[in-house]
Write a structure and sequence with these properties.
Two copies of one chain form a homodimer.
Chain A (H helix, E strand, L loop, with lengths): L1 E6 L7 H15 L3 E6 L25 H10 L5 H12 L2 E7 L7 H10 L29 E7 L16 H14 L4 E2 L3 E3 L9 H16 L17 E2 L4 E2 L20
Parallel strand pairs in A: 1-2, 1-3, 3-4, 4-5, 4-6
Antiparallel strand pairs in A: 7-8
């Protein structure tokens, strides 16, 4: 299988750098082909702006949606964007690896999403009617591909637990797992999260336990059950309001209502 | 009062550009002094990296926390970072205005947070013991200041409602409102959110209703009740686990448990 790892950490000798190397080798020894988009090393341009699109009318107001759609359709995106889109098309699996910065992905990775996820490529696809609302949330160009987050956090697991002060990690990751990965059609595996990894705090035993768990996740990548998010156009939602039908998970609200495996 | 607006939209003639102008004038006519950090116009550097800190040992591995703390303490941050920190110190109120990109703030604004929120400035402050876990979540350098998000979204309000497919807007904004604003001590006002604002979809009537509501929010900025998040060191949490005490909001989990006004 083809594996794309999108990676954002500024320091190659960090724990993240080691986990990346470990994961690449492990996929490799499983017979898979790996490409890494190392965003810091590539000096990835993080800001979506008019310079991304080569066929804009000079002086016209910039509209991210319209301009990205036109450039994608006309083959007039910058080469760096096209290259990343080709990697996504090539990949059977995508891992996004990053340290949690202020409760989300680093800016450089957010900018990868904003620029690579062009209109007509990752969104703005399919019919919008009273039966369907675009090919998204379970449909879209990434259908049949798997994705997983690998996240490191300085805080403790308890700080990110159901009643932890930071909010539950699953909820903090929902906008990414559901809104960025499930949206264009990925099957999203449960995240791999390493807690309490601040400076000097990962000793040999901790590291061995991390690589042991991560190795298993890599080995079981193709058989792991994805998070059972609800497909948008599968009957669970009223369209176009896009609210859960009253007989689906009655009384449930919030992120968890969009998975079939959690009852409040 | 002193008002800082941190603004991220690539196109000045956009709806966001108009709302910014409107808001600046309204604060101004209320007798307040406004500064705008227009991140796209400033060509804000969005990536936190070793170049941000002028006193690093050559060749030493980069550590964002350690290096930013040292540079902050030694007055060796780049001028753009220092300038934004000074604006935050100057401000009595901060508005962060942005279009929702992939369920969060644009990369350029995320990069503002990552670079301006230095160690010892916005985090890593105060005692860590079994009684207190740093000056954060209700304490910190921004205590006494107010903050508000102004967010525009292409989707409909129902898509972001309690049972809407995107997840509730309040929950999508929790990592920002709680994790970025309440963390260093801001009182966070309820967000101002404009829905369904895609291309050509805001007619004169819609625009009038938006500016009418926004004007009221500006006029009432100093008397609006902040979101009642729970202070971390105020007795509601076990320390250092940082989980809610069992007698506080018993049975409640998730983001809402960290506010005193929502019962599940």
């Amino acid at each position: 299988m083809n594996v794309l790892i999108v990676y954002a950490h500024p320091e190659p000798t960090s724990l993240n750098g080691s986990l990346l190397d470990f994961m690449v080798k492990r996929f490799d020894s499983g017979g898979h082909t790996v490409q890494v988009s190392d965003l810091y090393a590539m000096k990835w341009k993080p800001v979506l702006d008019a310079d991304d699109f080569l066929n804009r009318e000079p002086g016209a107001p910039f509209d991210a949606m319209r301009d990205s759609g036109r450039a994608y359709a006309g083959g007039q995106q910058t080469a760096d964007i096209t290259r990343e889109q080709e990697k996504l098309v090539w990949a059977d699996a995508v891992v996004m690896q990053f340290p949690l910065y202020w409760y989300s992905m680093p800016a450089i990775m957010k900018g990868w999403v904003e620029r690579v996820y062009a209109y007509s490529f990752a969104y703005g696809i399919g019919e919008h009617s009273d039966k369907r609302w675009g090919d998204r949330f379970g449909e879209g160009k990434m259908v049949g591909k798997r994705a997983m987050l690998l996240v490191t956090a300085g805080g403790w697991a308890s700080h990110y637990s159901q009643r932890g002060v930071n909010g539950p990690m699953e909820d903090l990751l929902f906008p990414i797992q559901h809104g960025i990965l499930y949206y264009p059609g990925f099957d999203v595996l449960p995240p791999f999260v390493a807690y309490k990894i601040g400076q000097g705090r990962v000793d040999a035993e901790h590291y061995a336990s991390l690589t042991d768990s991560l190795g298993k996740r890599v080995d079981e990548f193709w058989s792991t059950e994805p998070i059972p998010f609800r497909p948008q156009n599968g009957g669970d939602y009223d369209i176009p309001a896009l609210t859960l039908r009253s007989d689906i998970a009655p009384g449930q609200i919030g992120f968890a209502a969009h998975r079939t495996d959690i009852q409040s």
